[in-house]
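> Could you send the N-acetyl-alpha-D-glucosaminyl L-malate synthase BshA prediction when you get a chance?

Sure thing. Input:
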Amino acid sequence: MKIGIVCYPTFGGSGVVATELGKALTKVGHQVHFITYSQPQRLDFFNENLYYHEVNIPAYPLFQYPPYESALSSEMVHVAKYMKLDLLHVHYAIPHASSAYLAKQILATQGIHIPVITTLHGTDITLVGKDSSYEPVVTFSINQSDGITAVSEFLKSDTYRHFAVTKDIEVIPNFIDLERFKRQKKDHFKLAICPNGEKLVVHTSNFRKVKRIDDVIMIFHKLRQQVPSKLLLVGDGPDRARIEKLCMELELYPDVRFLGKLDAIEEVLSVADLFLMPSESESFGLAALEALACEVPLITTNVGGLPELNLQGVTGFLSNLGDVEDMVKNAVTILKDENLPVFKENALARAKEFDITRILPMYEKYYERVLEES
Ligand code: GMT
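Output:
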């Protein structure tokens, strides 16, 4: 198949999933055309089946807000027409689904039929999409898609709850490449960070409010009073400066380190003993799956799609939102020497259920179905 993939090219989960999916599709022989406003972060390899088309957004003094959606639709039209695409697969509803709808209508006037599949990732539904500034367009463009997928059962239900969506939504969970995300031997790294055998706790995110980094810090603050430990924070975002200040006030330095945006997250996860995700909302929790693949047990909230990934008492523990005391208690349980190896083993076993080689065929089958039906 010749597939056009539209996504955000940033470090965010939806962009990562879209890029990894596209890469995997090229490896099994499909031709994939990425259409984005800059090179996706994870698009770091060359393959004869892979193409990258950059959306050109010309500046003009009149434009306080450059019309990105129009430029994106135009690029989709060009690529679909000249590269003879079979389908467009857009990740994240806003504005990709509505731009794809417009491209599809334009192509139809030229006698070209192209089905559109929209994958919902989370914040496009749970946070941003619900806002009345976007809701009518999101509802319309989801209903106009030829196929709709969601990354968890929770997200599927939440979409039906908040939007007047009349079409079937197929749940295809996120996936992990176990060739890349696996525990590597990095003893020197572990020793450098934890010279006295401390336990290593990790959090990775985009440092937005929804991630509740204050809870990460409070969990660690209380945990280190019971278990000697260190905390590594990976990523960057709006809350970072405030959180750094909080760490100073709580006198957590030098036991806390901010590593910023890192490509090789698997190297950090390879030395971790525990991963914290106390999010307020999480449609899937891809970062937690990356941790599981590197044999790192989880402390998460029980919100959104997290119970579909983190198994209570098996791969870690789930607590009510904001229940820092419970998360600390559970963290202490996991980190006990007699428990940690079991949780680590369970983490890897669970990650294997989301191996890309299992999930990729679900997308391929779904593409075939949509092509047949549309
Ligand atoms: O987590 C974020 O804020 C980024 C966001 C995105 O859209 O890139 O992630 C969402 O999509 C990921 C990939 O499907 C999911 O793993 C994340 O759980 C989801 N984030 C939220 O629902 C908050």
